[in-house]
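anyone seen this seq b4? input:
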Amino acid sequence: MLATVDALLPLSLLEAVRDVDTPEGVLEAEFVEELRNKRLGLSDTVFAQIQRYTEAVRRNQRTAQDETIALARLIGRRPDAEAILRAAGRFLAREAYMTVSPVTRGSLKIMPSMMSRPLALRKARRIAQRYLNGNVRRVGQFVLLEIPRSVTLGVAPGSTGCAFYESALRELLRLLVGTTGSVEHTRCEGRAEGSCEWRADWRGADRSR
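predicted toks r here
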């Protein structure tokens, strides 16, 4: 069976590329047209792909994982790959967070930690399963995100590709519980350590009420 990912994942990559490649301020139409020929994020191809993935997200559709890996590799060849991958992780976390009902989001902000934490953990687990093909669990004071097959593994030198998942976990916990402690990449498939895993300090997310 062909491995798939939620369409929000490749959409997050392309939205990050477009955001990075879009210059600030209002430019003359001719200059914008010239930039389209030089910057991937402003190309007609990327625009069409963003529309396609946006529609797929709206319809709760999935796309081939290999297609997303190819897109990540394209981004990985850029000198600003890490910045784009981090931005993509934040984008995915924010969009996924908005799928949580407004009532639940509001409750998480006002409930005491002893009540909000279990609920936040359940939401984080659901979001990781659906949008990252990952697993979230709590071990003591830490929250662990495990990714059995990373779509950004090895797409850029060193551990640059891992920035996507680290950023997504950090932003998701910030949204769910208000702030985030340290996030550490504890295991990496690229180092022959099995699946990739990130560990977030759950205590660092404590806040007074």
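The helical segments are 8-21, 29-36, 44-58, 65-76, 81-97, 102-110, 113-132, 163-177. The longest helix spans residues 113-132. kinda curious what u guys think
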